[in-house]
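Incident review: delayed structure delivery

Summary: a single-chain prediction request sat in the queue longer than the usual turnaround. Root cause was a stuck worker, restarted by the on-call engineer. No data loss occurred. The affected request and its eventual output are reproduced below so the record is complete for anyone auditing the incident later.

Affected input:
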Amino acid sequence: MGMVSQRFAPFGTTVFAEMTALANAHGAVNLSQGFPDFDGPEFAKRAVERAMAEGRNQYGRMQGLPELNRALVGWWKRATGMEVDGETQVTVTAGCTEALAATFLGLINPGDEVILFEPYYDCYRAGVAMAGGVARTVRLRPPGAGEGADGIVRGAFEFDAEELKRAFTGRTRAIVVNTPNNPTGKVFTRAELGLIAELCVGHGVVAITDEVYERLTFNEDRPHVRLATLPGMSERTITLSSLGKTYSLTGWKTGWAIASRELSAAVRSAHQFLTFCSAIPMQMGAAEAIERGEEYVEGLRKQLGEARDYLAGVLARVGFRVFMPEGTYFIMVDHTPVSGGRSDVEFCRWLTTEVGVAAIPPSVFYDDAEGGRRLARFAFCKRMETLRAAAERLERLRK
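Output delivered after worker restart:
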């Protein structure tokens, strides 16, 4: 008799844990799991140390420390021009993953349908199942053209508007929009988000936006647009984000949800029974990062832009068909020119154990694994010396 509940049995161990463990076991350069191999700003870490030294080590408020909630209110006003109440519309969570879980559990009733764009971050599918919902998927397809002389495709993954319209039914409760998108690197355009907004308003659907990569965009013609700022969407959007990606502090697990009072109440109804509150010293450090970290963020964007261009060039040179990302810190490739007919899972395991570079097989991000069979995802949130070490090993593929 299996001991795992039926709702979680189909998911197994997350692919990120599997590939990192495999990379560690074989001494591979880990370009699979998306965490930087460098730290965030020193002033934020010092704020955590001060908080601990001052005795800020006990439970805090369920909705978040006043210092962090105030910082988030100011940040949201600067980013959107919109006013929110930090006491009733901002909820601090244990990372964006917990924010997603609390949102699904607090909002979705058994049998409700939730629209996901695939490939999707794997916890979306599990979160819908955890709430007893039914996932309906809309495919993001890689561009068929746009390949330059350098072998790099400069064009976004796209969805079919008619397919999206058909996904909305009388049972649709919510749609999840992850922009910039992991794993494709797509930044949704204002026109695409406008269509999503129109459908949400027309069908009375709530939008759940995962915007953890909101500051990590690279193309001026594809800026990050917040769905909550579009007409009719402020009252029906739950905007989720976190500290980790923007400030290279993924291990702090500090995230948040910003929404109307009614939707915030839904998030908090589950959040209070999941973690109640996230780590207090980290919340103090997060407030410091948000209030003082603009220079750090701009430097990080420049660093990641250079890392993106470097790794994309390496991957194209050794034979991959490279889809240049518009945002995030991941590059998707078509591995078939160099993989010898292997599936994505077979290829990524072989690449890790035999070549010494770990990547993520994206088929786990699709309802039908065939959708990701030809693809692989590489992370470039690494120091240049790490990327150069990976490049030396990847050169073996040319032979």
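Verification: The longest strand covers residues 172-178.
Action items: add queue-age alerting; document worker restart procedure.
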